[in-house]
Write a structure and sequence with these properties.
heterodimer, A: 430 residues, alpha/beta, Aspartate Aminotransferase, domain 1, Aspartate Aminotransferase, domain 2, 2 domains, seven-stranded mixed β-sheet, 15 helices, B: 152 residues, alpha+beta, Sufe protein. Chain: A, 6 helices, globular
């Protein structure tokens, strides 16, 4: 495949990045006297005015607790909160809003499945299959579970190309497998995993398929019916929304059969002295007063992304990623991790540079106003497996431009020169 | 605060030409320290002669700040009584996390060059990594049978 993005379909109607940037006040700020170039979107995205305004409007106009008061504000707040849920359901192609559970973040969504469905259905000798590229949040809950239940945690290895091999999946997923849990898009390698094909293999063996969509849902069209998965977890804050909101989508019949996660108000039906019955979906899984304001603001983020169109967003990111792979990859001594073709990956470009530690790269480019991430990116198993203890990572979103990639490249070349013995002052002065 | 507050020439020199980097055969005490955030790791080993650090070597991987700090630390404590090393480690921690004073460094100019790191809070952990390993080694040595700590 060519590294040039396709020009058909959505490519004929590219994002108006200049107009989008106007919606993000933070992009106008200066960092160390340079315009901010924000390339740490895989960690968290920036927020448009519309999202901030939704939060302000809620607290200034409609603040009340939901699902209880009979007064006007309580009704408004409930309506706004549940409307966010309905738009989220539509955004991912869910069968209905009752399949969408709000949590704190992707991590909590994954832990919810581990503590409820998995704790009840995975026993001694059963197997959970994940990959070595998983985020710690899709490893640690399963480690705890298999230790408790006497089950087995198996890993699909990542190949030289940064991808998994479906033949390995076929080999590792057996009738003993109860759950396959996998990230849709790697936050380090950028790899887009073939979760739809993996789900087929999982189902063929009687196992469920959980997709960690933290990196994919913000950046490409994701439809749970098309993927034919059983659970999907993702976070608001990586898709223009506030921190503190995560989503767990689950197939209705599964959620109906699951025991609740946390106990308390809202999740109950009838409470007696010794026993209780539980609320309907999805409230059964939302104990206590939820993060109402942020759910409402998240709805504004979903609206913003929906209006742009996820296919156009994906197209924009393929284009900027292809450009970044070429430009960053062209710096002497730089090695890019993950698939070589932008069509096989998301807008995440992690790399190493000979003789310059990623921490130093991050620090030096910050002096050019460029924000990137450096380290292990919460993927120690991957670091060990591929023998790359740490890397620098640039990650893109709807507001990033090729010119920003150019600025990063200049800053990286400055770092290289500095460690090659050029005067620090000369580098800083560039 | 500019970039050359952090990347002083002497720091880059220690990073590019580390002193005492390598492996000690048959060390008396060895330890491994790591920073889970960035994946940096230090392996530190000493050979003792009585209560004197006769030889010291470090390995592992890390950024320029942690590697330069390790290089300077090993150079500073090699040949020193363990109590002196302990005092210097205390002085260095004071430089990084306390008052920022260089008073506890005994006029060691290389170590003083790391003063700028304090202005970059994320990097303080990098600079401290080798010193934390040193203090661990001192603790192990002092608690080892037959090597009771001297009052200092």
């Amino acid at each position: 495949m060519s590294s040039t993005p396709a020009r058909d379909g959505a490519g004929n109607n590219p994002l108006d990045v200049a107009a989008i940037r106007e919606d993000f006040p933070i992009l106008k700020r200066m960092v160390r006297d340079k315009p901010l170039i924000y390339l740490d979107n895989a960690a968290t995205s920036q927020k448009p005015r519309q999202v901030v305004q939704a939060l302000v409007d809620y607290y200034e106009q409609s603040n009340a607790n939901i699902h209880r008061g009979i007064h006007t504000l309580a009704e408004e707040a409930t309506e706004l909160y549940e409307s966010s849920r309905a738009r989220t359901a539509k955004f991912i192609g869910a069968s209905g809003p009752d399949e969408v559970v709000f949590t704190r973040n992707t991590t909590e969504s994954l832990n919810l499945v581990a503590c409820t469905w998995a704790a009840e259905h995975i026993g001694a000798g059963d197997e959970i299959v994940i990959t070595t590229m998983e985020h710690h949040s899709n490893i640690v809950p399963w480690q705890w579970l298999v230790q408790r239940q006497g089950a087995v945690l198996k890993f699909i290895e990542v190949g030289e190309n940064g991808q998994i091999d479906l033949a390995d999946v076929e080999r590792l997923v057996t009738p003993r497998t109860k759950l396959v849990s996998m990230m849709h898009m790697s936050n380090v390698l950028g790899t887009i995993n073939p979760v739809k094909e993996v789900a087929k293999i999982a189902h063929g063996n009687g196992a469920l398929m959980l997709v960690d969509g933290a990196q994919s849902v913000p950046h490409m069209p994701v439809d749970v019916k098309d993927l034919d998965c059983d659970f999907l977890a993702f976070s608001s804050h990586k898709m223009l929304g506030p921190t503190g909101i995560g989503v767990l989508w689950g197939r209705r019949e599964l959620l109906l059969g699951m025991r609740p996660f946390l106990g308390g108000g809202e999740m109950i039906d009838i409470v007696e002295r010794q026993t209780s019955t539980y609320n309907e979906l999805p409230w059964k899984f939302e104990a206590g007063t939820p993060n109402i304001g942020d759910v409402i603001a998240f709805g504004a983020a979903v609206d913003y992304l929906s209006a742009l169109g996820m296919d156009r967003i994906r197209e924009h990111e393929v284009e900027i990623t292809a450009y970044a792979l070429e430009k960053i990859g062209g710096i002497p001594g730089v090695r890019i991790l993950g698939p070589k073709d932008a069509h096989d990956r998301g807008g995440v470009v992690a790399f190493t540079m000979d003789d310059v530690h990623p921490h130093d790269l991050g620090q030096i480019v910050d002096y050019e106003g460029v924000a990137i991430r450096a380290g292990q990116h919460c993927c120690q198993v991957l670091s060990t497996s591929i023998g790359v203890p740490s890397s620098a990572r640039a990650s893109f979103y709807i507001y990033n431009t090729n010119e920003e990639v150019d600025a990063l490249v200049v800053a990286l070349e400055g770092a290289r020169a500095m460690f090659a013995g050029e005067e620090v002052a000369a580098v800083v002065a560039r | 605060m500019s970039l050359d507050d952090l990347y002083k020439e002497v720091i880059l020199d220690h990073y590019q030409h580390p002193r005492n980097r390598g492996v000690l055969e048959d060390p008396d005490v060895a330890t491994r320290g790591h920073n889970p955030l960035c994946g940096d790791e230090i392996l530190l080993a000493v050979k003792m002669d009585g209560d004197v650090i006769k030889d010291i070597a470090f390995g592992g991987r890390g950024c320029s700040i942690s590697q330069a700090s390790a290089s300077m630390m090993t150079e500073s404590v090699k040949g020193q009584p363990i109590t002196e090393a302990s005092t210097l480690a205390g002085g260095f921690k004071e430089l990084m996390s306390g008052s920022g004073s260089t008073d506890g460094l005994g006029g060691n100019e290389d170590l003083e060059s790391l003063q700028g790191v304090k202005k970059f809070p994320v990097r303080v952990k990098c600079a401290l990594l080798p010193w934390t390993a040193l203090l661990e080694i001192i603790g192990i040595w002092e608690n080892a049978p037959g090597h009771a700590a001297k009052a200092s």
